[in-house]
């Protein structure tokens, strides 16, 4: 049955003043046109050529509210990650360790390559793929990249940005559907969702997991769930109760994927920032012009780690299980797999300057009176 026939479905009209409307603009511009140039555009820079994603004027600021972003930079990791996800999903659980992923080859000579075009529908043995990464590296943008490619190919998708509702992209348009609460509502919900749909779940902000209703879609509609999340157990523990396993991927590079429309800080300020706090694009463009305003916050975080021995112990203990216990930790360190061994994890400081600052605080703390330590 069509999505529009669902009793609670609300059609979203194109409108570049809010997130739902911007998503509808993407659909109206790109659905099934098979012409990637309408939303993916080349951008030349002094050092390299890039591809950006932008479907209409002011579309990205409307999509990402309270930002000054002008477009989304398509990183090289995106097509590679999507290739691996599709390859493993098509293996029906038979992929052996160290087996090459050849189900989908990325055409590196084609900047606008879309793997979903002419790809036959498939029912994955896996319920989901989870893409993990630390703050500010572009996990949410990876979902929008996937959504844009599926929209160009005219394939149905759903997008979960909160725990209350879903956006549905289909040949009829863009609709918002509330998650059902009763068993009868679940049946109605599933009967109106297209077959072989991809469900894109952004767990970086509000939803801490995948709604249980989506498990039903897997059983009845061959749905495939793609979740992005920080390495926190409350975001991924939902998979412990699912009928099929979920595969996990990591996006490690510490760089952001937006393009700022406002004037960037001068080069000498960016250089100073990188020496002190690392090369995180999100923070550099936000604070590099005013380093003195950010320095007290970082100093406070380092003192907190040095003074609160429980916090420091917890940080180190959780590194081995890849669980980030405090979101503010991203300003100082990240947790990531050990190179060559993804079963073990380690703490990486953004820059030696921050590590030495913490060590100095710890050394000073050894001489503090016992009642103040």
What features would you describe in this structure?
With 373 residues, this protein is an alpha/beta fold. Helix content is 34%, strand content 20%. It contains twelve helices and 14 strands. The chain has helices at 19-30, 59-63, 77-89, 139-152, 183-191, 213-221, 233-236, 267-277, 281-287, 291-307, 309-319, 352-365; strands spanning 10-11, 40-44, 49-53, 69-74, 128-132, 157-160, 165-170, 173-178, 198-202, 224-229, 246-250, 258-260, 333-338, 341-349. It has an eight-stranded mixed sheet, with helices on one face. A four-stranded antiparallel sheet has the order 2-3-4-12. Strands 13-14 form a two-stranded antiparallel sheet. Helix 10 crosses helix 11 and helix 10 packs across helix 12 (352-365). The longest helix has 17 residues, at 291-307. The model is unreliable at 93-104, 254-262 and 368-373 (pLDDT under 50).
Strand content: 15-25%
Q: Record the strand order, biggest sheet.
A: 1-8-7-6-9-10-5-11
> What is the approximate shape?
globular
Largest β sheet strand count, sense and barrel closure: 8 strands, mixed
Helix count equals 12
Helix content: 25-40%
Q: Segments where pLDDT lies below 50 for 5+ residues?
A: 93-104, 254-262, 368-373
If you compute it from the alpha carbons, what radius of gyration comes out, rounded to the nearest whole angstrom?
22 Å
Order of helices and strands: EHEEHEHEHEEEHEHEHEEHHHHEEH
User: How much is the average pLDDT?
Assistant: 77
How is this structure best summarized?
Helices cover 34% and strands 20% of the residues. By secondary structure, it is an alpha/beta fold.
